[in-house]
Write a structure and sequence with these properties.
This protein is 34% helix and 23% strand. It is an alpha+beta fold.
Length: 381
């Protein structure tokens, strides 16, 4: 496990207090992030059915497949591990119901993590069929997620390490990005720098796009060749113990387009406006409005997105994005010790020009701390 016993004990104490506040007899976790945060359990086995049960006496009981038995034993502090057997027409929710019956949870009030990739609609239907007459189910998707928002000192150390790795990846990208070079070479250099620094695979693919693909916000298959006069949009993250600290830049190759500098200046103004707003007591909605006002004042209202960042932390595939997000009227308050990624994304489809600027911050009582050593300057190679 990557944290000491006291860290996990403190997390469990917070989880149990939150369960008591909601009057829950048990918490059924299907989100891998919750299992990892609470116990250290580290796997991608959540692509199949598994469930971690937490009861008010502090017991943690895992139901998983045989392939993850040793994974749980090796990476977590879970002592009570049960295995459901793969086979034709096997329904693991039957095993879960029977296990909870043995745990004397019949007729109990269960908190369930519904809002997670670890519980597909198909599996939820099976779960509902087995438990609707067994116990009362309440949506507790936000219980652990809310506790994960504020990062402990030990967690902040991993966020800082992820940021260090991200800076190394940008160094590597600037070294290799040049006319005639494939996007694949840039990706290899960036991910290689992170791996060599001791990092992990990130929660999703790095976003990369040259030419017209610089206006895309998602990874796609296929590799462009960088041209003599080009633009290369990159969004990436270091990953230390699954903790992320994303960065975003658009690199200009050769002579900038006529509006590249103006778009960069607008993105920088917007990011600095966001920095001023990343204060304890402000809301995520306030952050979005600061970004929107700056870009709208530059005449770019039609070229910006409807969100400008999000909370980040320990996250698993398919995405390093962790809720909540910076969008209009989001009332989530900014608190000290959050790790937050702010991105200014300008995609001008009229001219075909792109410009992005993003970095991760740790929030403190006296304001935000930028975790990147790279300056807010337009990168021209």
């Amino acid at each position: 496990m990557l944290f000491d016993k006291q860290e996990y004990a403190a997390r469990k104490e917070k989880a149990l207090a939150a369960m008591k506040e909601r009057n829950l007899d048990a918490l059924l976790m299907f989100a891998q992030e919750s299992m990892y945060w609470l116990t250290g359990y580290d796997t991608f086995g959540y692509c199949f059915f598994q469930c971690l049960i937490l009861t008010p006496d502090g017991r943690t009981t895992l139901l998983t497949r045989s392939a993850d038995l040793r994974q749980a034993q090796r990476t977590s502090n879970i002592d009570d591990i049960h295995v459901w057997i793969d086979g034709a027409n096997v329904n693991p929710t039957v095993n879960l119901r029977d296990l909870m019956g043995e745990m004397d949870l019949l007729g109990s009030r269960l908190g369930v993590e519904f809002d997670t990739h670890g519980l597909t609609a198909h599996l939820y239907r099976l779960l509902d069929e087995r438990l609707n007459n067994f116990a009362e189910m309440q949506d507790a998707s936000s219980l652990i997620q809310t506790l994960r928002l504020r990062k402990s000192k030990a967690e902040q150390a991993f966020v800082r390490e992820a940021a260090r790795q991200g800076d190394l990846a940008l160094d590597a990208a600037m070294e290799v990005a040049a006319p005639g070079i494939s996007e694949g070479h840039v990706l290899a250099a960036m991910q290689g720098a992170i791996f060599q620094a001791g990092g992990d695979y990130p929660g999703n693919e790095f976003i990369i796009g040259a030419g017209d693909d610089a206006l895309l916000c998602r990874y796609k298959a296929g590799r462009n060749i960088i041209e003599a006069k080009d633009q290369l949009t990159l969004e990436w993250s270091g990953a230390a113990a699954h903790y992320h600290a994303p960065l975003m830049r658009t690199l200009v190759i050769g002579k900038p387009r006529d509006n590249h500098q103006a778009l960069f200046d607008a993105a920088k103004d917007a990011l600095l406006a966001v920095e001023k707003t990343l204060q304890v007591g402000k809301t995520f909605g306030d952050v979005f409005e600061a970004h929107a006002r700056a870009l709208d004042a530059a005449g770019l209202s039609n070229h910006r997105l409807n969100a400008c960042g999000y909370n980040v932390g320990a996250r698993f595939s398919p995405s390093w994005m962790d809720g909540p997000m910076f969008f209009r009227e989001n009332t989530q308050e900014i608190q000290a010790h959050m790790s937050l990624f702010a991105h200014m994304i300008i995609m001008d489809s009229n001219s075909g020009a792109a410009m992005t600027l993003g970095q991760t911050y740790l929030t403190h009582d006296n304001g935000p701390e930028n975790l990147s050593r790279h300056k807010l300057e337009m990168i021209v190679l």
